[in-house]
Design goal:
By secondary structure, the chain is α+β, with helices and mostly antiparallel strands. It has one domain: Alpha-Beta Plaits. It is 28% helix and 34% strand.
């Protein structure tokens, strides 16, 4: 789906993620959401980007598409507008037709890469409604930087997406299933879902983690480490994005687990984020929770 902001401008604000597993009788409604794409959301206040995405079988990362699993990824200019969107008829339509539905409002702590030629940057204090003066560009930092270096604890989310070079798609998919299986079973991973904008070549993963140590343990071993090294060596991706986000609010049920949680104070990135996103710059394969 098309971004709603001009290309090349760093995308900043607040992220909303919706995951849905539709009831069987509402599968048709779900397929129509994929066909309609961004069009139904063009007049949503504060919306700067929207992606309506399908998923693999069982909500995983599979060549076999799911008839019931979908995801919605949006960015908003301000936290208040993101929260209002969660109470809107558009989101309620998903909830009322889903067997399970999870929603989250998240602030971007760090980001590296591009999605449709757009960089992302950390959520500003202004977007989060934090007390203080309006920031100028020098205070916001470059794309991929956060507002400060404070520690934080508690659940956080990782979003990765990639455009796969078509001629290398089959090579990529040789690695993807094993890495995805490990992700779903990784200690400390609370939730994981494979998403896609287009079959085979435009893929995305959303995961929720207890802590940084759990994420690093997954990233540095097993099928994921092998897949990440192969992606770097063989240049599977023409474009990729890694985003770490703090959970501000989440609600719903996913795979039988209740995720209702109140909003929490806004904090920023940890030193581990720099190690994750900076490894590629050092000339070694990235240790990000990648697209494979």
């Amino acid at each position: 789906m098309e971004a709603l902001t001009p290309l090349h401008d760093p995308l900043s604000g607040v992220v909303v993620v919706l995951l849905a597993d539709f009831l069987r009788q509402h599968q048709g409604w779900g397929w129509l959401r994929l066909v309609a794409g961004a069009t139904p959301y063009k007049d949503v206040p504060g919306l700067t980007m929207v992606k309506v995405m399908g998923s693999g079988h069982g909500g995983g990362f599979s060549l076999r598409p799911s008839a019931t699993h979908q995801g919605l990824i949006c960015t908003f200019s301000h936290l208040d507008l993101a929260l209002k969107f969660l109470d809107s008829p558009a989101v309620q339509a998903y909830r009322s037709r889903a067997r399970e539905c999870w929603t989250g409002v998240l602030s971007v702590q760090s980001a590296r890469g591009h999605w449709d030629k757009q960089a992302w940057q950390a959520s500003s204090a202004q977007a989060l409604g934090m007390p203080g003066e309006k920031q100028d560009k020098s205070e916001q930092g470059e794309p991929g930087q956060s507002l400060d270096g404070q520690q934080h604890s508690g659940p956080f989310a990782v979003l990765t997406r990639a455009s796969i070079v078509p001629t290398k798609a089959m090579a990529f998919w040789r690695y993807a299933p094993a890495a995805q299986a490990d992700l779903g079973q990784a200690p400390g991973c609370l939730l994981a879902m494979g998403l896609g904008e287009a079959p085979l070549v435009r893929q995305c993963t959303f995961s929720l983690w207890e802590d940084t140590a759990s994420m690093l343990q997954y990233a540095r071993q097993g099928a994921h480490q092998v897949a990440s090294a192969a992606a770097y060596k063989h240049q599977f991706f023409s474009e990729s994005l890694f985003v770490r986000m703090q959970v501000l609010h989440m609600a719903g049920v996913w795979q039988g687990r209740n995720f209702d949680a109140p909003a929490k104070a806004v904090q920023s990135t940890t030193p581990a984020d720099a190690a994750l996103s900076g490894s590629l710059l050092a000339g070694v394969p990235s240790l990000e929770v990648s697209h494979v």
